[in-house]
């Protein structure tokens, strides 16, 4: 009997102490992250496709681009609409591609991708993402290189869904280092910003998520002395984690999954580091990489220990 290939392609498992991470060829995705046998991700199985962008790398833009249209250096570009109902191009171009899995070390593995010029994005971009485990938890380090002959616009995001206890998320406590949120229209495109002080979206002090529906981009991030912004998620049973981001990430998207099909609704919380806002290519706020220019950036997860 011939076995069917996994929809995720090859997989690498790396470990450090009681930590494990599983990385797949499909999208270079982080399929699962476990500590002491407990998953901190709302993961997908080794023989399942990722749903709702679970674990995906979002490049060369995160989130939505209105009408899939943007101008760069005086030339207009049209990208395919991956959300036809909303008429948006969602989450970049690489999350369904096959990434090259490089030889893994015991506690780290890298994935590599070469984005070649295409209609709507006629640029050349080489990316390496390294997932590594240590006493500090999981680190995700990216290095992008414009290896083409023309400048290009670029943004990045990552899409992990976290679980710290039995769902729903209503009973979990969230803390975000954000002073503002983006006001979004019905297509998820920013229309302005709102100061969080006194609003129901102010999580600068830890508080229960409750029934609040979150599909919200936060910005105005405060940082600790080491330059990192830290979001924290915890539950009363002792499950907790910290998501940290370096200075490259100036936005955090938080998604409670209310629009997902049952039973995925509100069973995890996506905390998505983003280097730019939704619609950044169109607004001209994405980073420009010159030919031969590289950019590296990091984020990671520090897990808490679950009390026995």
UniProtKB/TrEMBL annotation:
Upper lineage: Bacteria, Bacillati, Candidatus Dormiibacterota, Candidatus Dormibacteria, Candidatus Dormibacterales
Organism whose genome encodes this protein: Candidatus Dormiibacter inghamiae
Single GO molecular function: carbohydrate binding
Record-level GO BP terms: galactose catabolic process via UDP-galactose, Leloir pathway; glucose metabolic process
Name assigned to this protein: Aldose 1-epimerase family protein
SUPFAM superfamilies named in the record: Galactose mutarotase-like
Cited CDD domains: Aldose_epim_Ec_YihR
Family annotation (Pfam families): Aldose_epim
InterPro entries in the record: Aldose_1/G6P_1-epimerase, Gal_mutarotase_sf_dom, GH-type_carb-bd, YihR-like
């Amino acid at each position: 009997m011939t076995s069917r290939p996994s929809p995720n392609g090859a997989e690498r498992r790396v470990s450090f102490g009681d930590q494990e991470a599983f990385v797949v060829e499909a999208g270079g995705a982080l399929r699962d992250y476990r500590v002491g046998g407990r998953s901190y991700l709302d993961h997908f199985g080794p023989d399942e496709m990722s749903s709702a962008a679970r674990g995906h790398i979002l490049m060369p833009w995160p989130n939505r681009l209105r009408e899939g249209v943007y101008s760069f250096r005086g030339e207009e570009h049209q990208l395919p609409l991956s959300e036809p109902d909303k008429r948006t191009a969602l989450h970049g171009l690489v999350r369904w591609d096959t990434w090259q899995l490089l030889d893994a070390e015991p506690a780290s593995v890298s994935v590599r991708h070469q984005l070649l010029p295409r209609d709507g994005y006629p640029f050349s971009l080489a990316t390496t993402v390294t997932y590594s485990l240590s006493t500090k938890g999981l680190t995700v380090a990216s290095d992008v290189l414009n290896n083409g002959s023309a400048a290009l616009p670029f943004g990045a995001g990552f899409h992990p869904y976290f679980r710290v206890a039995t769902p729903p998320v209503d009973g979990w406590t969230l803390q975000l280092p954000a002073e503002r949120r983006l006001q979004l229209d019905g297509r998820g495109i920013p229309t302005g910003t709102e100061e969080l002080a006194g609003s129901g979206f102010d999580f600068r002090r830890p508080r229960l998520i409750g029934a609040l529906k979150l599909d919200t981009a936060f910005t105005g991030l405060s940082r600790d002395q080491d330059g990192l912004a830290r979001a924290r998620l915890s539950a009363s049973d002792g499950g907790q984690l910290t998501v940290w981001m370096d200075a490259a990430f100036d936005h955090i998207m938080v998604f409670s999954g209310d629009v997902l099909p049952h039973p995925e609704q509100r069973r995890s919380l996506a905390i998505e580091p983003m280097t730019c806002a939704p619609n950044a290519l169109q607004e001209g706020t994405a980073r420009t990489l010159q030919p031969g220019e590289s950019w590296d950036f990091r984020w990671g997860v520090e897990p808490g220990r679950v009390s026995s």
